[in-house]
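Box 4.2: Ligand-aware structure prediction
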Amino acid sequence: YQLPALMSSCRICTLSTLPIELHGPGSAGQTEYSKEFCPKLHAEGMFVPHWPEAFGGLGGNSWDHFILGEELWAVGEPRGPQYMNVNWIGPVLMRYGSPEQQERFLPEMREGKVTWCQGFSEPSAGSDLAALRTHAEPVEGGYRVTGAKVWTSYAGLGDYCFLLARTSSDRKGGIVILLVDMTSPGIQVKDIPSVIGRGDIHEVFFDDVFVPADRLLGEIGQAWEIINFGLANERIGIPRYAFSERMVHRAVERLKTDGRYNDPVIQDRLGRVLALCQAARLLVYKVIDERAKGKEPNAYGNLARWSVVRADQAVNDFMTEFMPDGLLGADPMQTAHHQRAIAAGIASGAAEIQLNLAARRHLNLPGDK
Ligand SMILES: Cc1cc2nc3c(=O)[nH]c(=O)nc-3n(C[C@H](O)[C@H](O)[C@H](O)COP(=O)(O)OP(=O)(O)OC[C@H]3O[C@@H](n4cnc5c(N)ncnc54)[C@H](O)[C@@H]3O)c2cc1C
């Protein structure tokens, strides 16, 4: 097994014909595309190479996974929503799922056939996730769930929801994780139109939805630990800088063609944004290296996410200031990058919170709560 040898970007580009207009955040079109693309990637042994062999992977390490992630992000992330299955939902199930849950969910996940959505945020619970109010009432044979989620990506085409709800008012201890079938009676999904495109984010309403007891993930009282494990994997699993760097190189080409590349102001700014991309890359590599060595997640994961967001935003600021025509129709890829960049600092949790966590865990400063 020689994964790095397989991973030439050329090979992946041949597999991926993701149309440029789908390079932005998760539109319905991108979700549909992922259902064609991911099984092809699976057939090449490149979908879950880092999963243990016992769960159908190739037993590769975090580096294999990340090299692949960089290549795919650079071409617009054709895995669409399924990056979540690969990066964190699958690994969470491997660590905390019952044998029956693993048997039920992991095979279709590793074959690239299924879309999950993440039912965490609520109207009054975003950064303060433990304030969530969706209620799961224990009943004969399972739970009855009532409540509302918001900003849920991919819910419109989701097969399952990784849902957080609570059975009691105990802030963290009362939370449970339910693996919910999105076709269950009582679930209503509404699209939220936004500047990042249609079909990307949603409201999801649960009205007395029955969830069988065997869809409870982990033990009662264990949810907060599982959430943190999942988020640590999610946060670092997105090499956005690969797409941003590609944009910088495209910008250089365009500026040369337009005869503007020798402008010292432009060169200064370009150098700075490229340095931010490289800094993000190196911080992420540190985290990946530690993970490959089996270390537990630490504050570097928070710092890496912050720097990835900063790099994305700096590239977007540069492009918007010096090449605004790209956002007015001249360059659909720039528009797609812009849409991703403006959501980057909030979509996987507000980036500022990462600074709080790093301050507390890394600098031993007093917490905000
Ligand atoms: C494109 C997109 C996709 C998303 N997809 C999903 C999804 O699939 N599933 C899901 O569950 N959620 C999703 N979200 C929601 C996202 O996780 C939340 O928006 C995020 O956690 C922030 O929560 P909030 O919107 O309630 O903002 P708030 O928590 O109210 O934060 C608002 C602002 O206040 C700042 N702030 C808040 N608390 C602090 C603090 N203690 N210290 C410093 N600053 C603070 C934040 O940094 C932020 O700038 C998505 C959001 C977007 C934009």
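In the box above, the bound molecule is flavin-adenine dinucleotide. The beta strands are 116-119, 135-139, 142-150, 160-166, 175-181, 187-192, 201-212, 216-217.
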